[in-house]
Design brief:
Layout: E1 7-9, E2 24-28, E3 34-36, E4 43-44, E5 50-53, E6 58-61, E7 67-72
Antiparallel strand pairs: 1-7, 2-3, 2-7, 4-5, 5-6
The structure holds zinc ion (ZN).
Length: 73
């Protein structure tokens, strides 16, 4: 990620699903990992708190308090 990129954190409701897009990233506050919201393959952060399985179109988050979503502006 370019350090000059600005990011805007998005509000979301885990009950209705997570926003996704080419400029949307998922951030794990526990390990500091940043994942693409539409990865080519399944990805997980280092501590595996956040897992994005693009094939299944599914995002799993263990600890929602340590999960953030932002958009690159
Ligand atoms: Zn993590």
């Amino acid at each position: 990620m370019n350090p000059n990129d600005k990011k805007q954190y998005l509000a979301f409701d885990a009950a209705t699903g997570y926003p996704a897009g080419s400029r949307i990233r998922y951030e794990c506050a526990n390990c500091g990992g940043i994942l693409e919201s539409l990865p080519e393959h399944a990805v997980a952060c280092k501590c595996r708190n956040v897992i994005v399985d693009s094939d299944a179109g599914r995002v799993s988050v263990k600890d929602l308090a340590q999960f953030r979503i932002f958009e690159l502006l």
